[in-house]
Amino acid sequence: MTAEEFDAENDSVIRVLIVDDQALLRMGFAMVLDGADGIEVIGEAADGRAAISQAKALYPDVVLMDVRMPEVDGIEATKQIVAALPHTRVLVLTTFDLDEYAFAGLRAGASGFLLKDTPPADLITAIRNVASGEAVLSPRITSRMLELFGEKLPTEEAADSAHSAAINSLTVREREVLELIATGASNAEIASELFVSETTVKTHVGNLLAKLGLRDRVQAVVFAYENGIVTPH
């Protein structure tokens, strides 16, 4: 069965694959998610290699991905899953919010960043948000990312020339929206800042993601800082 056929048959249920090398954590996440309406845990994996295999076989909507695992880690697994399954979203799991290894998962294509001690209600909300195409990246996490990578991020003059054409294709308004996304602003906050409707913001977000070849807002944040569109200041 193809991913499209799975989508057609399971459009009302969010299918989740849990990946963590600790069995007790997998069990805990599964208990929380199986008790939530509209969410089904379809599989578990203890390492990145198994995660890739399970994802390709089961077509999950969302993968909860630990990044610190033996052999094939969560970063490599995320890269391969995102490449093979464009409709699958990955939520990175980590113990500490200031974790360079976990942020590498975002650069690998993950759609969000989640602490392992996240309250159950917030975990369920994060799963639903990511499954609906949103990103889980709060202003607090954005701030942590800047603290961690601030000195490594390039200036505008040092931005990757390969991206110059795409960046230049953005309208003035789209660039303003991208700059606000990079601060962790929500659509409602962007709408308020620019005095436009949330529907208009969503249109701008969709357009700029398409022009830059990005999957979601998380990639937009990373792209903006890595290419000097905004700076840590």
TrEMBL record:
GO terms for biological process: phosphorelay signal transduction system; regulation of DNA-templated transcription. Keywords: DNA-binding, Phosphoprotein, Transcription, Transcription regulation. Residues 15-131 form the Response regulatory domain. The modification 4-aspartylphosphate is found at D66. Pfam families: GerE, Response_reg. Residues 163-228 form the HTH luxR-type domain. GO terms for molecular function: DNA binding. It comes from the Bacteria. The keyword Methyltransferase does not apply. This is Response regulator transcription factor.
